[in-house]
Design a protein that fits this description.
Largest sheet: 7 strands, parallel
Shape: globular
Domain RmlD-like substrate binding: 1-259
Structural class: alpha/beta
Pfam family, one: RmlD_sub_bind
Bound molecules: NADP nicotinamide-adenine-dinucleotide phosphate
Protein name: Sugar nucleotide-binding protein
Number of helices: 10
Oligomer: single chain
Strand content: 15-25%
Radius of gyration: 18 Å
Length: 270
């Protein structure tokens, strides 16, 4: 079977590619601004905002399954329209679709969010991820929508890099913004399991431990052998930014459905 990973040059997409190649699959992976893909992957350049190019590539590759990861934090066209274009092309080719979504589409509240909770975005990135889900579901009701949280792992993780920067005195980490970090390898394995399944709709796929960004910074300090005393912290409340504050994803359904164990951040980094 051929797997098409859209966004193979990204952190999660690259890990999905490596695991699929190791499992013996033919993998075609796309990049946009950063040429390259892991060894064993057939790399193709693709701009997901170019609907005709997306359709042409998917029709040529004829994948059995498509994993769709692209986003740009501040670019609606990539995050929302791009996801719609990939979904359209995958449906046209009869391919199974796993779309990567985010906890950022929730407003934030003390209670954990269930898989089927409808988006309540409060900022532009969350709204774009919510719009992407709506478009993907309209085009392909059978697609799996993987709602995930902070993706952690080695220094290639943006979240780990943010922590390392704050530990070095560059920027600060919020003490009041809670998330459920997930390991990039666990998430990639879960995505591949879902690609081989017929799960339809949103599914929370995140770790079981909710921590603040500042707590994540302390765990990163311990993992990298750094002095936690240098960590600069702040509060989202005082920052003036409009961002979801407490977002806990209840991933118990995924934990029961998948063979992959979704490890908590204390086990991962502690
Ligand atoms: N990172 C997190 O903590 C986190 C948290 C929750 C949800 N998510 C979701 O998880 C997914 C993967 O995140 P990630 O951190 O692995 O992302 P990433 O490392 O930033 O990778 C993003 C990918 O999108 C590609 N891309 C950007 N613009 C594109 C365009 N116009 N056309 C085609 N491809 C384009 C990039 O290609 P080039 O680099 O080659 O330009 C890259 O391969 C995203 O959907 C994100 O919303 C991430």
């Amino acid at each position: 079977m051929t797997l098409l990973v859209v966004g193979a040059s990204g952190y999660l997409g690259g890990e999905v590619c490596r695991r699929a190649v190791a499992a013996g699959q033919r993998v075609v992976g796309t990049y946009h601004a950063n040429p390259g893909a892991p060894a064993g992957v057939e790399a193709r350049r693709l701009d997901v905002t170019d609907r005709a190019a997306v359709r042409a590539l998917v029709a040529a590759v004829r994948p059995a399954a498509v994993v769709s990861t692209p986003y740009r934090y501040d670019d609606w066209t990539v995050t929302a329209d791009g996801a719609a274009n990939v979904a359209y092309a995958a449906a046209e080719a009869g391919a199974r679709l796993v779309h990567l979504s985010s906890d950022a589409l929730h407003a934030g509240r003390p209670e954990p969010y269930a898989d089927a909770d409808v988006p309540t975005p409060v900022f532009a990135y969350g709204a774009a991820k919510a719009a992407a889900e709506t478009a993907v579901r309209a085009v392909d009701p059978g697609a799996a929508l993987v709602r995930t949280s902070l993706i952690v792992g080695d220094e290639r993780s943006k979240q780990v890099r943010l922590c390392l920067a704050a530990l070095a005195g560059r920027g600060a980490l919020f003490t009041d913004e809670l998330r459920c970090p997930v390991d990039v390898g666990d998430l990639a394995a879960a995505v591949l399991e879902l690609a081989a399944s017929d799960y339809a709709g949103p599914l929370n796929v995140a770790g079981p431990d909710a921590v603040s960004r500042a707590e994540l910074g302390l765990l990163v300090a311990r993992r990298f052998g750094l002095d936690p005393g240098g960590l600069r912290t702040a509060t989202s409340a005082a920052s003036g930014l409009v961002r979801p504050v407490e977002v806990r994803l209840d991933s118990s359904r995924a934990a029961g459905l998948l063979r992959t164990r979704l490890r908590g951040v204390h086990e991962l980094l502690g």
